[in-house]
Amino acid sequence: MENSFLGTLADPGVFPAVSGVLGLLVGSFLNVAIHRLPRMMEREWQCQCAELRGEEAPQSEAISLVRPRSRCPACGHAISALENIPLVSWLVLRGKCSACQGAISIRYPLVEAITGLLTAFAAAQFGFGWSALGAILLIWALIVLAFIDFDTTYLPDAITLPLLWCGLLFNLGETYTSLSSAVIGAMAGYLALWSVYWGFKLLTSKEGMGYGDFKLLAALGAWLGWQMLPLIVLLSSVVGATVGIALVVLAKHGREIPIPFGPYLAAAGMIAVFWGERMTQYYLRVI
Known about the structure:
Elements lengths: L1 H8 L5 H38 L35 H5 L14 H20 L3 H23 L4 H14 L8 H26 L6 H14 L4 H22 L11 H25 L1
């Protein structure tokens, strides 16, 4: 019975479809993580600061990724299970809270859709097995990191550090690259942006990026190997420069306002997961 189920699940037509549905469900949870994790971090920092000052911890609601239940940020209405069906509920509610009629950001169904599509694509690309599982986990983490960094300029250690270790763990069996390449990739990824950070700071007396960017590139190096780092840095820089110029010119985004680099690293990492090897081979052939 178990072998029959796994055989059906491993079918090239079934596995991507099942993975896509799973991705939609996980996308709903990723929305919660994107919203709550920065607030959890800020509350922890406030408590630590109060402790250092010898004061009582600030009285605020304790939240986690699972409690309390999801609710409308405008009126506090607890969202029922029927109101929390990925994509469907947002469409049925026409993007409004059922209690106060306040607008529900289109980002929620967008994150669910992106997660579902990329999960299905990873399943189709890698097929049933460990490589698909690893790629899917990496994609989920990169989605959360990209949106959190875009909102807050934070790249939480609670995600980047476990992501690095998971990359090394998967490559114990050379799932994506050799273990030596993964270890060198983790070190080189961190040191590459660390060097850029300090070079920029020494020249300008300003900080050009955060330490979270170092850790994210180190994690990508641990997953994909040091050979992919030049491609990831190049892709993220090109996309970041293009978007940055567009924001300054079209959206009147002030040049003094920092633009987070994490989303571009995350996007470049996803591209490298799917097409990195082919892009690198093509580039080498052209050279």
